[in-house]
Amino acid sequence: MAYWQKTTETLWYNEQSFYCAGEYGARGSKRAKRRKATPAEIERANQRNREKRVQELIACNFDEGDIWLTLKHPVGERPGTVQEFDGEISEFVARVRYQYQKRGEKFKWIFREEVGVRGGMHAHFVCNRIPDSNRIISDAWTRARGKTPIEDMLVDGFCPFDGMSHFEDIRRLGNGEQLAEYLCKELPPKEKYSESVELSDDDRKRLSRYRCSRGLKKPVVKKKKYSHWTMKRILDLGVEGINTPAGDKFRTPGYIVDKDTWVTGVCQYTGLTYLHYIEIPTRRGRWETEKKRQRKQMDADCTVAVRTAGTMKAGSAGSRRKN
Question: Which domains does the chain have, with CATH numbers?
């Protein structure tokens, strides 16, 4: 049976999905009664889609060296309401954006506010790093909380670090799956919160969603249909054979398959086999991909025609030049 290959390309990985190009319903089975999805099934599907969407945004817009940031408050200085905390975050983002723009850079971010079960308010950011990012971010968070230091404590115009900004490299946490799950995790039920924590329905709605900056890139999705081939070849290879020379035709050059992401089974709705895995670039493949991306950017920014070396016709002035 013919099948589709769907490739989702990001900076960190390529996601490959194979599925048969058949109609709904397993062969020989009768039409089942129409059933309405339960609210729990709908919520699970929505949660998976949110996590996948955030993971793709992270993998398309951030890279090694960028920041997984946590912003906190000292004990006894927590804002009284979620609205006040949201105002501090808005001022923080504005200050960091201004400092990045002064340096000719764009501030890219994805963040989620969180209130602990005991009332501790904090925020988690995924953001890009530039020179002096740690100083810029620490300064902006200190000032957003209204803690402007006295002049003789300033260092080059920045506030001293107060330990309320915690930095970590995002690539230390895998391919973005854990970050996406954390940014999209469900709120604890109301019974889990302390009696001193009062959250309205609007507060819970605000805390249950992530937010991101404008203009973030989305993954490139390609689909290809194989009409005269079946999935038997790749299924016979299996997870152990996909990274061997026999599996080269199913992998992007310069990439290897992460065996932990290999998932195969039979769809409960179509009765047809599916396969899913993620391939990650090797060190050489990642270097070639980055060079290709830089070359495309140079070509896009170029405003004059560029002739590739060795394409000059015989008899031209360049070819008649003597050494």
Answer: 3-36+231-301 (no CATH), 59-212 (3.40.1310)
Determine the pLDDT at residue 322.
43
What value, to the nearest 5°, has the Cα angle with vertex 180 and ends 174 and 185? 130
pLDDT at 286: 55
Written as one letter, the residue type at 187 is: L
Tokens at 307, concatenated? 């002739």
Confidence (pLDDT) at 95:
94
pTM of the model: 0.79
What is the full DSSP assignment across 139-186? Answer: HHHHHHTT-PPPGGG-BTTBPPP-S-EEEEEGGGGTTTHHHHHHHHPP
Torsion angle of alpha carbons 100, 105, 111, 115, nearest 10°? -10
Smallest CA-to-CA distance from 280 within 164, 171, 149, 154 is with: 171
Residue whose structure tokens are 């105002």: 87
Q: Hey, which residues does 69 pair with through a beta bridge? A: 125, 167
Count Cβ atoms within 10 A of the Cβ of residue 234 and give its class: 0-12 exposed, 13-18 middle, 19 or more buried: buried
The radius of gyration computed from the CA coordinates of the chain, to the nearest angstrom, equals 26
Quick: pLDDT tens for 164-196: 889 999 988 778 888 999 999 988 888 888 877
Question: 120: Cβ–Cβ under 8 A, 6 or more apart, which residues?
Answer: 72, 73, 78
Q: Which residues of the chain, if any, have pLDDT below 50?
A: 302-323
For residue 70, give Cα distances in angstroms to 67, 73, 114, 177, 203. Answer: 9, 10, 10, 18, 20
